Amino acid sequence: MLRGSRGRPSHARVAEGLRLLDDPRRRDLFVGRLCTVDLANDPVETYEALLDFAPPRVDFLLPHGTW
Q: What is the four-CA torsion angle of 2, 45, 34, 21, rounded to 10 degrees?
């Protein structure tokens, strides 16, 4: 589950932002997604959820030193 800076779920807000980027008027702004790996989540399920938004590119960061 995505969590915001205060520990509350943020998935709905993030998904809405990604839907806005997918609008044809803004699609040129959506060049990809940079994600920090959360080791508590299933990697395949997470990757498939990211693909639901059809990003042009997905890059991953390990969580060490990203806080």
A: -80
Q: Which residues contact 67 (CB under 8 A, 6 or more apart)?
A: none
Q: Let me know how many helices (H) and strands (E) the chain has, helices first.
A: 2, 2
Rg (CA), the chain: 13
Per-residue pLDDT of the chain (67 residues; tens, 9 = 90+): 556 567 677 778 888 988 888 888 887 888 888 888 888 888 888 889 888 888 888 998 888 765 5
The three-point CA angle 21-16-25 to 5° equals 25
